[in-house]
Amino acid sequence: MYDARRRRASVGTSQLLDNIVSASNFDRDEVDRLRKRFMKLDKDSSGTIDRDEFLSLPQVSSNPLATRMIAIFDEDGGGDVDFQEFVSGLSAFSSKGNKEEKLRFAFKVYDIDRDGYISNGELFIVLKMMVGNNLKDVQLQQIVDKTIMEADKDRDGKISF
């Protein structure tokens, strides 16, 4: 009985991994390696990576956009990242990821409310994360206004993908 349950669980896991592979730019070996990396990051073995676990990575914690990256990976807005979300978030950065996927990820960094547009306020917030106090807010707002003017092709006051 126990062995049968274990086989079903491994088949379910295998099917889940196959689904993840088909929905990503990674092959099965790459997904297996990502799963091992995910399990190391999941310090409390909850099956998800929370903000603190993400920030335990030096290359993430030192990035001024770390909180935005975590929010993008957290597709369902649940506050943590499961394995499918983890692979999906990394998929654009695979060597097989195309230019549009990479651009879409970059767009999502700025689209804080996930409405498909980058507003003046969103652009200001994200740029402020990057420049900190190196620019006065007035200077930063001028850059934001100029950027919106140049990138707003349909003149609706915001940037579309």
Automatic annotation (TrEMBL):
Superkingdom of origin: Eukaryota
Keyword Metal-binding set for record: yes
GO biological process: cellular response to pheromone; conjugation with cellular fusion; intracellular monoatomic ion homeostasis
Annotated keywords: Calcium, Metal-binding, Repeat
GO cellular component, one term: calcineurin complex
UniProt GO molecular function: calcium ion binding; calcium-dependent protein serine/threonine phosphatase activity
SUPFAM superfamilies: EF-hand
EF-hand domain: residues covered: 29-64, 68-96, 98-133, 139-161
Alphabetized PROSITE patterns for the sequence: EF_HAND_1, EF_HAND_2
Keyword Metal-binding: yes
Subunit structure: Composed of a catalytic subunit (A) and a regulatory subunit (B).
Sequence similarity: Belongs to the calcineurin regulatory subunit family.
Function comment: Regulatory subunit of calcineurin, a calcium-dependent, calmodulin stimulated protein phosphatase. Confers calcium sensitivity.
Protein name: Calcineurin subunit B
